[in-house]
Model the fold of this input.
Amino acid sequence: MERYVIKGGTPLSGEVEVGGAKNAALGLLAAAIMTDEDVTIENLPDVSDINQLIDAIANIGATVTRNDRHTVTINGSTIRSHVVDYEQMRKIRASYYLLGALLGKMSQAEVALPGGCNIGSRPIDQHLKGFRALGADIITDHGMVNAKADILTGSHIFLDVVSVGATINVMLAAVRAEGRTVIENVAKEPHVVDVANMLNSMGANIRGAGTDKIRIQGVPKLHGTVYSTIPDQIEAGTFMCAAAATGGEILIKNVIPRHLESISSKLMEMGCTVIEYDDAVRVKAGDFIRSAKVKTQPYPGFPTDMQPQMAAVMTLAHGSSTITESIFENRFKYVDELNRMGAQVKVESNTAFLTGVGSLEGAEVSAPDLRAGAALVIAGLAAHGFTTVNDILYILRGYERFDEKLRNLGAIITQVDSEKEEQKFKLKAG
Ligand code: UD1
Done:
């Protein structure tokens, strides 16, 4: 089984280039099928979640051309099916964007209910509420969602919870609806704005993405485009935390510093120096890590996708820190793993209480989900001795060449798939 083996204790230093945002790219890929013309998407991360959505898109008949590792051209004119089965959905939760995209394009879609990272119950009721408001009949039966409309008509929709997925999905369904749609209480994440920008470059008329209210004037037809995915805020934040936890200094390139503000300001509060450039940030660890309090919030608040990585830093702080998770109810599964490395973390309800221990000890741990897996890697990089992180398939869903990028920063880490390889690495690394 694939795992990372890490010899911790080296402060990371040097430069790293961040790839395209996975969560933006998932929305962009779904949007790409909505026209019959060619859509070329650049700066796609080469990670398994993206590759699986591309497979799902090819599976319904779209023509997919891989131009290079990070660029794909999609032509939706050859789509012959509106059904995305459980096999595809099981692999990747965000195939649910094909529900909104197919409904918008073909007025019907049949998509299996999503799986994905197990970090909470993750309902899609708000997506369905939006589709219904646009005039779709929705039937859920035997794990499939069936959405069908004679004609989609613009509507006024108020989302009960701020949801990235529902915002993007309803936006996809509404771009070609007749008349005007207003969606209120929407998510403001950079990837919501990115999907709106690409749709607008395809001829859609979407205003207000990035605010609480999105207004869409339906258009009958969309056309092709060439579009580049925004940089990944969470990949960048992960390297920022790796610098802080290992006492290092990293220049993180190809980022939009504004998207990182909640992470930068928290790390500065914890004693790091963060310098922003036009498209890069430099993070230098302080002499010691100060404790802090974090509460996850929708953007521009502190991202839930960064809380495990921040927890890894907090285990090393002077004093006691807290993390309150207000988006997903089951996102502390990594805590037992951190405690195996000598951390002192207790969870009560939706809050983790972290008593800083100054240093961690290497151990064998398992990644319970994507971001928690990244947090365990950070902990391993900071710990004394060897750490083995099992179940890294989760990590590979969202980080491209993670171990290679870390090695370029001086980390001693490798990916192995057997006990023999692990022993060999350990012998060599001493
Ligand atoms: C997206 C991101 C994920 C990130 C999350 C929050 C993608 C592919 N994934 O997930 O990495 O952690 O945003 O930033 O972009 N909810 C409902 N009903 C719904 C939809 C959501 O109650 O119909 C609730 C969820 O249970 C959760 C909250 O709303 O408590 C936010 O979820 P949402 O923003 O939808 O997360 P995802 O889009 O699934």
Summary: The chain has a mean pLDDT of 95.
